[in-house]
Design a protein that fits this description.
Helices cover 42% and strands 15% of the residues. By secondary structure, the chain is of the alpha/beta class. The strands form 3 sheets. It has a 4-stranded mixed β-sheet, with helices on one face. Residues 292-302 have low confidence and may be disordered.
């Protein structure tokens, strides 16, 4: 496929918006969700991460299971989706994670548990001596229903070896998502851009995801993630521009026309750029979130969370129709 990043910015936007409208018309989706970042203690020291801490560091924390259950009730009792990701804790056994999922699902049977990146699944496999399939089956039995898409970063090994040599290779990320799809677990997928990658790296990343989707059909949504350099080893580089953010959204929609949804993740893009991205191919604003810790540790200036009315206004003022959804994109309410 040609390198679409070389095409004119507005031409890409129009092409992506045409695809979006053919797929979804004026619908713009969002969900009432809660991000539960259960710990920032992590054995992996990814160089671009501003979130991870060692045990005993100032600001380090771990939510025990009863704390997680209380957190949901205190922060977002009306959430339809609980999005759970965290650090790779050095001391907790795999049973801690299955028990946590089970406790949350028992306490909130009406909420969808979307939990654990491929990096976490790989770690659980190592500490439990179980295969990836066995880990996923145990989590699914406990109540896990979906997986987020984190940890993909950029698949190209040369880039990956610079920004996150400690992280699982691209082949392992793809294997874990392929296995999840085979077990009936839908996943998201991501790409982290705006650091040292080049346009051709982004194109190959998107084409690889397109191939996976052709094979399994298990990717529900793709999220382009704009890198935040503050408090990382790349703090000297400028953050991505608005044009780069919008162009990446548009190219993602064009290449991944076999993935149902493209998210404008307002936490990383900022609220105003995310709104414009809705006319550059994105059809989903993610959710209310309530409180997100990982990106804000890297200097994100976006809000901690948004209200339902704010999200509906984003869509309406862009000439679109806001649709509240559940985790599986079943429509709950249309905001005219």
């Amino acid at each position: 496929m040609e390198n679409l990043f070389k095409k004119d910015f507005l031409t890409l936007g129009r092409q992506a918006d045409d695809i979006r409208q053919k797929m979804w018309g004026k619908k713009t989706f969002f969900v009432r969700n809660l991000h539960l970042n259960y710990t920032n203690i992590c054995v992996s020291k990814c160089r671009f991460c501003a979130f991870a801490k060692d045990t005993g560091d100032d600001g380090s924390y771990l939510y025990e299971i009863d704390h997680m259950v209380r957190y949901v009730d205190e922060k977002a009792p009306d959430a339809r989706e609980i999005h759970i990701v965290g650090g790779l804790h050095p001391d907790k056994p795999f049973k801690f994670y299955t028990d946590a999922v089970s406790a949350l699902k028992t306490a909130y049977p009406d909420k969808t548990i979307k939990a654990f990146s491929a990096v976490e699944i790989d770690y659980f496999s190592k500490i439990s001596d179980l295969s990836v399939a066995e880990v996923l089956k145990a989590l699914k039995q406990a109540g896990l229903e979906m997986m987020p898409g984190g940890g993909a970063e950029i698949f190209d090994p040369e880039v990956r070896n610079v920004i996150c040599p400690e992280k699982i290779p691209a082949e392992r990320w793809l294997e874990i998502h392929r296995t999840a799809h085979g077990l009936g677990i839908m996943t998201n997928a991501t790409m982290l851009y705006g650091h040292i990658e080049k346009d051709e790296h982004k194109m190959r990343h998107l084409e690889t995801l397109r191939t996976l989707q052709e094979e399994t059909g298990g990717i529900q949504a793709f999220i382009p993630l704009s890198f935040h350099p503050e408090n990382t080893f790349l703090s000297h580089i400028p953050a991505s521009t608005g044009v780069e953010d919008l162009k990446t959204t548009a190219v993602s929609r064009i290449v991944l026309d076999n993935v149902p949804h493209i998210k404008a993740y307002w936490v990383m893009l900022g609220e105003k750029t995310a709104q414009v991205a809705l006319r550059f191919g994105a059809d989903d604003l993610d959710g209310t979130i309530v409180k997100e810790n990982i990106t804000h540790a890297a200097g994100a200036k976006s809000s901690d969370g948004l209200t339902v009315n704010q999200m509906a206004d984003f869509a309406r003022s862009a000439g679109l129709t806001a649709v509240e959804r559940d985790a599986f994109y079943n429509e709950i309410k249309v905001y005219g």
